[in-house]
Amino acid sequence: MSETNIDVLVVGAGPVGLATGLFLGRHGVRALVAERHPGTTIYPRATGLAVRTREILREAGLAESVAAAGSAMASTGGKLIVDTLAGTDLATAKRIWPRQSEQAVTVEHSPTADVSGICPQDRLEPILLDAARAAGARVQFETELAGFDGGVATLRSPGGEQVVHPRYVVAADGAASGLRESLGIGTIGPGPLGGAVLSVLFEADLANLIRGHEFVVCEIGTPAAPGLLLAINNSDRWVFNISYDPDTASPADYPEQRCAELIRTAIGRPGLDVRVLARNPWVPSAFSAEAMRKDMVFLAGDAAHVMPPLGAYGLNTGIADAHNIAWKLAAVINGMAGPGLLDSYEQERLPVARFTVEQAMLCQRNPRLHWDLAGSMAEREQLGMADPQVVSAGYRYRSRAVAESHRELASLSDFAANVDGSPGGRVPHVRLARRGERLSTLDLCGRDFVLLGGASAHRWADAAAEAGRRLGMRVQAYQIGRGCPLVDLDGNWRQAAGISAEGAVLVRPDGFVAWRSTGRSPIPEQTLHDTLRTILDRS
Ligand SMILES: Cc1cc2nc3c(=O)[nH]c(=O)nc-3n(C[C@H](O)[C@H](O)[C@H](O)COP(=O)(O)OP(=O)(O)OC[C@H]3O[C@@H](n4cnc5c(N)ncnc54)[C@H](O)[C@@H]3O)c2cc1C
C-alpha cells in the first residue's frame, strides 16, 4: 500500500471537482482528483451555463471550446407544449420563449453576455478534464475515497489501496456526499420535493420532424406517455424525463423496452427507431449544507447545495464555489496568506448557496414567472424572485476577505445596480483597448491581486507595487482612462467602479472587489499594506 503527502485531495470528478483541479492548477497547486467512475459523465444533465460561469471559463481560456461543444443547441430556445410531437402542428403549437428583462446583462455588463450559454454537461466535463490535466491536476478515475479518518484518506482503485495525507480536501462528491455525511454535516431545506424522475438518454433521428421548430424543452401532454423531452443536439440525441411516484413505482418498473415504447408514444411515431443509451433516476430536491467547511475539508458543488433544475443554477453555483476556494487554498499553500483566509470560503459561499436554493425553489413553484421575465417583473418583485443574472453574478460577499462590504443587494432585478464597484461584488466589466487589442477589465484579473485605478491614480498604483513588495507578493496595478495605455472605450470606468480619477479598487484573484477608495489618500502605501495583510491573514 502506497502512502503519499499531497496539498489538496479533491473527491469527485464531476464538473465541480474537475473545475477545482483546473483552478488550483492555474494558481500553481497540483491537486489529486479522485473519481470512482471510469470516466466523465455520459448524462447531459446540466446544459445552461450562466453568465458568471461563462466568464470563469473564459478566464481559463475555454470560451471557444465550450461554445463549440454547445453549438448544436446554441441557436435554439424556448419551450414547446404539445400533445405528441408528431401529432401536433409544430408551426402553431404553443411555445414559450424565455423573455429577458430590460435590465438583463448586456455586452455593457459582461464580456460573455453575447456568448451562448448552452453546453451539455457530458460535453463540458471532457473539456474541464483536459484543461485540469494540462494545468497540472492528477485526475484518477476508478479511484474511490473508501475511508477518511483523522485527516487520512484511503483511496481504492483496481490497482489496490493508496493512503493519502492531504493538507486540504475539497469534497466535490455530489448530492449524496459521503464526506458530508461522515463529517456529520447536516442539511437545511425541504430535501426531496416529492415525486421522482427517470431521465432516459436516447438516440432517435427526429431531425426532419422538428427542423425549423427547434426547442430546448418540449412538454408532452399525451396521457399515455406524458413527460419532458429535452433537446441535446436537436437532431438525434435526446433525453426524455418520465415522472413517477416513488411510493408506488421504481426505476425497475421502467426497463429499456418500456422506456422505448413510452418515447415512441410521446413522439407519436409507433415505428420510430429508438435506442435507449442510459437511464438515470433522480429525485428533485432542495437543500444546502449546514456548513461548507469542517476543519481541513471544504464542501463544494452539489455536496454543499442541491436545487431543482428550473433556473439551471446547480452546476453554475458549484463552478463558482470551485473558483472561490481555489485561489484561497493556493494562497495559503503557497505561503501568501495565513489559514484565516480560508474562513472566508464559508462566510462567502454559504449565503450564496442559501440564496440560490431559495431562488431555484421560487422558479420551481412559479414556472411561468421563470420563463417570462419581461412580462412578470412586478409579480416577480413581489415574490422576491431575482433576475437569473443577479443570482449568477450579482451577489455580494461579506467576509474577512472583503473590506467594508454590504451584503444587501441593491436590486433583485437590475444586475448593473449590484455590480457597481462596491467591495464584495464582481468587478464591473468595462470595455478597454490596449495597443489595438480589445479586452475587458475582467481580463486584467484572475491570477494575482490587481489594483484598477482612474487615470490619475498614480499614487495608488505606486502604493500597490510597494505593498506587494513588502508582503512578498505580486500586486498588478493598472490605470484606466485618458492618457493611459489602457483606453476606456466607452468612457465609463470611473462611473462603473464608483471612483474618481484618483480613486482605485483592489480586486482579488477571483475577480471580486476586495477594497475601494473613491479618491486619494494621504497614506496610500500603509492603507493598501494593511488592507492586504488583513484580507490575507498576514497579521
Ligand atoms: C436531470 C438533471 C438536470 C440538470 N440540469 C441542470 C442545468 O440545466 N443547469 C445546472 O446548472 N445544473 C443542472 N443540474 C444539476 C447539475 O447536474 C449538478 O449541479 C452538477 O452535476 C453538480 O456537479 P458536482 O461536481 O458538484 O456533482 P456531481 O456531478 O454529482 O459529481 C460528483 C462526483 O463525485 C463522485 N463521487 C462521489 N463519491 C465519491 C467517492 N467516495 N470517491 C470518488 N468519487 C466519488 C461521483 O461519482 C461523481 O462523479 C441538473 C441535474 C440533473 C439530475
From TrEMBL:
Cofactor: FAD
GO MF annotation terms: FAD binding; oxidoreductase activity, acting on paired donors, with incorporation or reduction of molecular oxygen, NAD(P)H as one donor, and incorporation of one atom of oxygen
SUPFAM superfamilies registered for this protein in UniProt: FAD/NAD(P)-binding domain
UniProt keyword list: FAD, Flavoprotein
InterPro entries reported for this sequence: FAD-bd, FAD/NAD-bd_sf, RIFMO-like
Protein name: 2-polyprenyl-6-methoxyphenol hydroxylase-like FAD-dependent oxidoreductase
Organism of derivation: Actinocrispum wychmicini
Positions of the FAD-binding domain: 6-359
